[in-house]
Amino acid sequence: QVQLVESGGGLVQPGGSLRLSCAASISISSISVMGWYRQAPGKQRELVAVTISDGTTNYVDSVKGRFTISRDNAKNTVDLQMNTLKPEDTAVYYCNARRPSAVTLGTYLEDWGQGTLVTVSP
């Protein structure tokens, strides 16, 4: 069981910036994929950005060039730097971790944080 705690959400004006942080209860070096998802009211949960163990990152097209995901293995955190925020970015943002199962070979365990609210409004 991996505990994930998000922080950094809040209210920001369009064009502003926020930095979200996700703190994991175990070494993130053992986590294959860490990512950020978001869910707006009435909308389905959407993948925003992911970082895998080899350093590769990927982003949904709508945030590409504006958001940056990064991990700090020493601190066991993964951050999401969000720049040039738009009202469409308003959502609850969730940290996600996926890791190999030590019990069942070939399967993965997945954990979620409680979410942090980002509101982009003038």
Count, helices: 0
Class inferred from helices and paired strands: mainly beta
* String of helices and strands: EEEEEEEEEEE
Ends distance: 39 Å
Hey, roughly how much beta strand do the residues contain? over 45%
Biggest sheet overview: 7 strands, mixed
Question: Radius of gyration, rounded?
Answer: 14 Å
Q: Summarize the amount of helix as a percent range.
A: under 10%
Summed over residues and divided by their number, the pLDDT gives a mean of: 95
Write down the overall geometry: elongated
Number of E strands: 11
Q: Which runs of at least 5 residues are low in confidence (pLDDT < 50)?
A: none
Question: What is the structure about, briefly put?
Answer:
By secondary structure, this protein is mainly beta.
Topology:
Elements: E1 4-7, E2 10-12, E3 18-24, E4 33-39, E5 46-52, E6 57-59, E7 67-72, E8 77-82, E9 91-100, E10 108-112, E11 116-120
Parallel strand pairs: 2-11
Antiparallel strand pairs: 1-3, 3-8, 4-5, 4-9, 5-6, 7-8, 9-10, 9-11
Description:
The model has no long low-confidence stretch (mean pLDDT 95). The protein has no helices and 11 strands. The strands form 2 sheets. Strands 2, 4, 5, 6, 9, 10 and 11 form a 7-stranded mixed beta sheet that branches. It is 0% helix and 52% strand. The chain is an all-beta fold and 122 residues long. The N and C termini lie far apart (39 Å). It has strands spanning 4-7, 10-12, 18-24, 33-39, 46-52, 57-59, 67-72, 77-82, 91-100, 108-112, 116-120.
